[in-house]
Design a protein that fits this description.
Layout lengths: L2 H22 L5 E6 L9 E5 L4 E6 L28 E11 L2 E8 L13 E4 L21 E2 L1 H13 L5 E5 L1
Parallel strand pairs: 1-8, 6-7
Antiparallel strand pairs: 1-2, 2-3, 4-5, 4-8, 5-6
């Protein structure tokens, strides 16, 4: 997938999310997007400035190991114990110290991810996620959580800490 295709797909979501974040009480300056159609060895987690219409940062992010089924196609599920990524919009909740250190609770806002909290799907880091793109290689998989490199989580945390309103995370394919 070319950079232009990735940007075009992101812009499609941006145009529909601005009213949503305002109407639902989310942060109206920043939004996080994850494009699961982008290969895991390429940057596919985007910190997007909604006011400037610009990507501020991008990083690698894992997908659920429930997709490891002998096919190249990713599998998405909202089913408990599926170990799959769930598509949809999420409210980023409070931080806590989990098994992998700093983590953020995720609350699914759509039918496709409504079980995220019960499934313990959280945003966290893992040292096995590289800092830079490794494509055509792939990165480690998770048990359904969006997992990023520790340094990238430190940068994302700055946006979370500076925000008075929750930040929206949208995982799409």
């Amino acid at each position: 997938m070319s950079r232009i295709e990735i940007i075009n797909r992101l812009n499609e979501r941006v145009s529909s999310v601005k009213d949503y974040v305002r109407d639902q009480g989310f942060n109206t300056e920043y939004c996080f997007f994850i494009d699961m159609r982008v290969p895991s060895g390429k940057n596919r987690f985007f910190v997007y400035n909604l006011e400037d219409d610009a990507i501020e940062m991008a990083g690698l992010v894992s997908h659920g190991k429930g997709s490891q089924n002998g096919s190249d196609e990713l599998v998405f599920s909202n089913t408990p114990n599926s170990l799959c990524t769930s598509l949809g919009k999420y409210k980023l909740g409070k931080s806590y110290q989990g098994m992998f250190g700093l983590s953020y609770k995720l609350y699914g806002l759509d039918k496709t991810n409504s079980n995220a909290f019960e499934r313990n799907v959280v945003l966290h880091s893992y040292t096995g996620v590289p800092k830079q793109e490794v494509y055509p290689a792939t990165i480690s998989v998770s048990e359904g959580c969006p997992v990023i490199a520790p340094d990238f989580l430190t940068q994302v945390k700055m946006y979370m800490d500076a925000s008075d309103a929750p930040i929206l995370l949208w995982i799409y394919y």
